[in-house]
Write a structure and sequence with these properties.
- By secondary structure, the chain is an alpha+beta fold.
- Helices cover 56% and strands 12% of the residues.
- The protein contains nine helices and four strands; from the N terminus they run αααααααβαβββα.
- It has a four-stranded mixed beta sheet with strand order 2-1-3-4, sandwiched between helices.
- It starts with a helix and ends with a helix.
- It comes from Kwoniella shivajii.
């Protein structure tokens, strides 16, 4: 991970000694996200918020535009082909820090990890804003009413005290049914798959 940090910092990103991230992310994608966060915050809080909006917009574009998604996920393109196309698919006026991030990912053969890096960046920006990000994973997308119920249930908890809740729905068919709820350092597994696992474990013990 240290080499990743050096690679990102070499493009003008901030050093850890000048500013600090609000939470520590230990994954590889978290290292990219943290370097990106530090780069923007070193310039100014305004630049950080601007970058956050650009990342949110481009992340949505990856999800909604099949051509952009295919480009991001295409493992057959050379680094030079990917780099030459990056500027054209980013909206005009996007933060140069976003382009730098995507370029570093591309050069390291990890452009397909961009959505995960964005998710880690969003965790950092939520902590920076004093938000508590609540990730609700379900087999199918939840409607607004269901997400509001989760929000209401968590607002009265001690961990949410003094924070603004940000409920994010992620889809993973492998949970089968029910929900996985992750917030702060807590995780609640209400999925059918966990019940199946417990049942299988019980059969094995028998």
């Amino acid at each position: 991970m240290a080499s990743v940090m050096r690679s990102v910092l070499s493009r003008g990103y901030a050093t850890a000694s000048t500013v600090k991230a609000p939470i520590q992310l230990n994954s590889l994608t978290g290292t990219y996200a943290t370097s990106t966060y530090l780069a923007a915050l070193k310039k100014s809080p305004k630049d950080l918020e601007s970058l956050a909006k650009d990342i949110e917009s481009f992340d949505k574009k990856i999800k909604d535009d099949s051509k952009v998604s295919a480009f991001i996920q295409n493992p057959t393109l050379s680094a030079s082909e990917r780099n030459s196309a990056l500027s054209s698919i980013l909206p005009s006026g996007s933060s140069p820090i976003l382009l730098n991030l995507l370029t570093v990912l591309s050069e390291n053969g990890r452009l397909s990890s961009a959505p995960k890096v964005f998710a880690d960046f969003n965790s950092l920006i939520s902590a920076y804003r004093g938000e508590l990000e609540v990730v609700v994973t379900s087999a199918e997308p939840l409607d607004k009413q269901a997400l509001n119920r989760v929000d209401k249930a968590l607002k009265g908890t001690e961990i949410a005290k003094g924070k603004t809740l940000k409920v994010v729905n992620r889809v993973n068919p492998s949970v089968l049914g029910g929900l996985l709820v992750d917030f702060g350092d807590k995780s609640i597994d209400l999925s059918a798959s966990s019940k199946v696992s417990r049942f299988n474990a019980a059969l094995t013990r028998e």
